[in-house]
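Each lists sequence, tokenised fold; shown next:
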Amino acid sequence: MAVKQDGSKNDIPITMDSVQDFWRQMSFIDERYVYDATYVKLRNVNLTFDLPQSWLSGTPIEGWSITATGRNLAILHKNAPHVDPETVLSTSSSFVGIESNQIPPARTYGFSTTVTF
């Protein structure tokens, strides 16, 4: 049962119009929360080192490379504060460009090696 602030029973009806007005208010775009979406991001870096043939002479190995990989390493420039510009609330068309409680994408590192015989 709903009550008023003073503890008495609520006798104020909630009409459908007032509910719709509440949600309509929530959808207004306030300019102070609109940002230029331009950003520069260091998303993917791969560094590969090929071992010199002189190191491999006398072995059955024809080639050997070592690769280090990093993803989502840094946001170098963005206009929107405190958010990753690539995160979104939803892929629904009604939520495009809205940021709310997203976590940034994981920063990952990797290593690989390729040996050719």
